[in-house]
Amino acid sequence: xxxxxxxxxxKKETLDKGLSKTKENVFSKITRAIAGKSKVDDEVLDNLExxxxxxxxxxxxxxxxxxxxxxxxxxxxxxxxxxxTTLLRDEIATLLxxxxxxxxxxxxxxxxxxxxxxMVVGVNGVGKTTTIGKLAxxxxxxxxxxxxxxxxxxxxxxVEQLVIWSERVGVPIVKQKMGSDPASxxxxxxxxxxxxxxxxxxxxTAGRLHNKINLMNELxxxxxxxxxxxxxxxxxxxxxxxxxxxQNAFEQAKQFTAATEVNALxxxxxxxTAKGGVVIGISDHFRIPxxxxxxxxxxxxxxVFNKKEFVNSLFGE
Length: 317
Known about the structure:
The protein is of the alpha/beta class. Helices cover 50% and strands 12% of the residues.
């Protein structure tokens, strides 16, 4: 059984459909970049560099990819423009594989951590609450008991939205009145989850980024209070980024990784954008696992990220 054999035909179709705008954008640019050329030369490479940068792959990652392709062209002496897409796919897949982050196989949880505590961070509007709802659905579907915590107590809409998701998925939620201390909500959620034998706890947090010091203090306080209930919590700090914002998602990742110890990423809204290349840059640059990608509005449209399948979907098998 191959390492990527768990990736079903249905998931592949969802991924292909979700990345279709990015694929169309990248391929149309590549076609223009190699127009009238039969082999890969300096001009083609310059054009390809521009294609990758304007596809939101990011400057640093683009330069790494171009350098790798230059070496291949120098080694093979003659590379046709028809071979370029295959070459690009292979080099990007290899680059992402080398960043020492492993792909999750499914919505699984470590056996030795119960409840497994996920603290979700990210600015307002990136799809944070929706991602939490979809995660809850996927974990429940996998046979796990889930508890949600509404610790974004500064926005009534955030709490209301999470309550709707909890009812829709059929999982319990812990909440307090508006303006309550977020750390207090986290404490109550973990206490409830522990008492009821929940497998996984997902805590929503406020999406403010106007002051990094305040954000850092607030997230640190929530984490410290969690540890009073479960000493090694949170096990996962999941940063949600909106893929449709391209380079702005990069900037948010920089801010949040500086403010707290992010150890997992979810990139959302990839189905509605041509900026899906940002996933390649973020995965390479931050060396933090991209665990999930959002490919649509449906509860099934949150997928575990698979580097090889992602690159295959963008550039063809």
